[in-house]
Amino acid sequence: MNYRNYKEYEDYDAIEPFNPDPLVPLEPEPPRPIALPPVHDPEVLRILAVGSRPVVNRFVRLLHRSNIAHSSEWTQLIPTPNPGEFMRMLTKRIPLQADDFDLP
Known about the structure:
This protein has a domain at 45-96. It contains 1 helix and 3 strands. The termini are far apart. It is extended. The chain has 104 residues and is an alpha+beta fold.
């Protein structure tokens, strides 16, 4: 078979033209914002670390080494709508004390 002679395949209709599936977007959809459920417990604190991947991961490691938050307590990296920007979230329960309510 001679592959250099394409003329004999000119009328070959067996290969369909590429028609993308209309349900699949050709461009990726931007990440959706995280829907955080409301917190009715005053002892729950959420901390967001937002920045480049290395900066966010370094911050998580720093808090881990400082015994503030174990790295496993953070979410995985979540891309933000901004290119190259990521975030991780930490949820902590901070017990309140009576003198916490005396602050101005």
